[in-house]
Structure formats: structure tokens, C-alpha cells
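Fold in C-alpha cells:
===
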Amino acid sequence: MFRRLEGTEPKDPKFPADLRELGYFINQNYQVRQIKDPQKGFHFFISKNERKSQPHVPIWMSANTKKAKRLILCVGETHQDIGILAWRLIENNISHGSIIDFVKEAQGGEDDDTAILVANMGQLLWYRGGKRAVTLQTWNALPRIKGTDPPMWIDDIKNRIPGNKNPAQHLRSIFEQIIPSFIREDAKIQIAGIGDGAVEVAAYLESTWEKWAQRVSAIAVATGSVWPGNKIRDKDFKSFWSQRARAYVVSDEPVGSPLTGHEEFGCNVYSGGESAHSECVMPNAFNSILQFFKLVNEVPGYRELEALPLSDTTNTAKPAFSVTRND
């Protein structure tokens, strides 16, 4: 019988957050390549030990992140696959039901000063059999031995992805690892958040606002008729939210029509042009959202006025706000 003497155990692997320290760089085509062999890409499986060959969460970013002066960060719902806005729209129009139309419009024309980063708030479970990250919905739909068997057990060690065990952790990794490593240091950040993904954005930024106040320039959320998160308490972030954020919500009114609801959302509220399904708000309202982002980007000191109801009615179909430029 053999035993390992104390002090001879292998050390636990540690990996730096810096890309170059890991042995990689970004080439002129914005591809991750190995410093020792620039023809080779990222090596995911560096060991048979799964704790070294760690699972990973896929994210998407455009090729111009190092030179673009503006970054649009897309944060989807926590039950959706990356890039999917509304499955109910995919059947009739793939680009409309996904992030494709949004990205095309955001990067339209010859202007290369806007980069795109798409977070992955849903695919946070590691499916070892398929060697890929999946959503909880996909996990529950994986094949079973018998039709009456329950879904596979989720092991907190083997099926959770380090640093991305939940949406809050993933968003933190986006802001504290991905953005510092891949995004131009002085780029302004504008955030399009959907449903509970937008709630995670608000919670993270409120807790770290001192760090990001000079970089985040605008936020737009697409959601239902009520704000699904906690009220914002931090004085400085609350002030920013009221002047540089917009909420696009379920409504029968045309897209972009001002609605009442400032007290509920803490910012100006506009129709998302969708009367029933909150997941369809972003596909219908993204043009208005991008116009708002462009306005903030091009007009120094831009801010939106606080809600001024035009009537005493509480009907959300009535216009309630005006917008001003603070040049």
C-alpha cells in the first residue's frame, strides 16, 4: 500500500487574468493566438485534469474592440442562449429574433468606432458529455435513459463554470476581466439589458458605480410593464439612471412613445411596440434604443428631463415625458 507524504502533493493550479501572462496575444485580425506559436489559437484542454482544463462560457465580441471609441454591451435574459432575443420570432425571421439585426444596425455604415460585446447570461452550466456550456432549459432537455427519468443531477463542482456560476458572477467577469483585457481603455460603454439581465446590470453597477461612472454613458432596458428588480438606492447611480437610462416596456403604443412610469422604473419609460411578450420588446425597439445611444454619444452633456406628466391620468398609454439636450 502506498501513501503520499505530506508536502509532496501537487500545487493547485493558478491562472493569471492577463492574456499575455497566459501566453497569448491578439493579432492584427483580432484573433487570440499563442505567443510561442502565432499560428495556433487558444488551447482549452491543457491537462486531463478537468480543474485545469476548465469549462468556459462563450461570449461574442466584434473584431474592433481594441480600437473602437464606443462599446455597446448586450446583456440578455438569464434563460436564453447567447444571442437569442425571442425564440417565438426565430421561426419567421432568424435575424429579427436574434441579436443579428441589432448588431447590423449598431455597426451599420463605414463607421468603425462602435464595438459590440454580447454577454452570455444563460449558458452557465457545463455539459460534460457535449463539452459545452448550456442553459438550464437545455440541461433539462438533455437525453435520458428512460422517458420517466428526472433531469440529470447538477454537480456544483463538475457542472458549474468557475467565475461564472450564476448570472451575477458572469456579469462581474465581463466587467472585471473581459472589458479590461479586450476593450479600449478610454472607450465609452453603453448597455442594452433585457429582463432579468437588466436587473443584474443595475445591481452590479450600483455596487461598483465609483469605478464605472466615467465610462458607462447610457443604459437601456427592455422589459415588461414593471421593473423586476430592487429600487436603486445609491445617490450617484440613481442620478445617472434618471438622466442617462431608458426603459422600453410592453405597450400597445407605437415604438418610442413616451409613457408614464418614471416612479416605477427610476427613469423615462417608452413603449417597446409589443403588446404581450416582454421578450419581443428588444427586437421591436432596438432601433429606438440605438438612436438614444447615438444621441448620448454625440451630444456632450446629454441628459433626459425627469418625468413631467401631461395629464393626471395614470394610463400608461399617455405620453408623459419630454427630452432635452444639455449642450
Remarks:
- Confidence is low (pLDDT under 50) at residues 309-327.
